[in-house]
Amino acid sequence: MSGLSSRQLQRRFSAAVGYGPKTFYRIFRLQRVLALARKPQLFDGNLPLLALETGYADQAHMTRELQRLAGRPPTALLSKVDTTLGMSDFFKTVADAIPYPPT
Predict the structure, then answer these.
(1) H-type helices in 1-103, by residue range?
(2) pLDDT of the chain along its 103 residues, tens only?
(3) Does residue 95 lie in a domain region?
(4) What is the pTM of this model?
(5) How many domains does the chain have?
């Protein structure tokens, strides 16, 4: 054990990573979906299998999470998965919207 309370651990995690452990895990799973989708020999368009292999309860759960995180349904998101440039279009941000480091 670390000797930290769960709340203190969450605060330290958030300070180190930039967001909480739950959000980190959601993003990690999204990245796993994208990584497996790049391997057609494993994925081959089978969304229920992709959801199962990446730790979602079912395809509907995966669809809701991808929609929340990426703002696109899985079919739209995964249609661009073969190119890094195509994927970057989904995650465009405005650099000057939030000053960094925060003041």
Answers:
(1) 6-17, 21-37, 47-53, 59-70, 74-78, 84-88
(2) 578 899 998 999 899 989 899 999 999 999 898 888 888 777 777 899 999 999 999 999 999 999 999 888 888 888 876 655 445 555 554 544 444 444 4
(3) no
(4) 0.70
(5) 1
User: Cβ(54)–Cβ(62) under 8 Å?
Assistant: yes
55 within domain boundaries: yes
Instruction: Report whether 37 contacts 50 (CB < 8 A).
Output: yes
60 lies in some domain: yes
The CATH number of whichever domain residue 32 belongs to comes to 1.10.10
Q: Which residue in 89, 70, 87 sits closest to 79, CA to CA?
A: 87
- Contact predicate 90/70, CB 8 Å: yes
Q: Is 26 exposed, middle or buried (0-12, 13-18, 19+ CB in 10 A)?
A: middle
Domain with 31 in it: 6-81
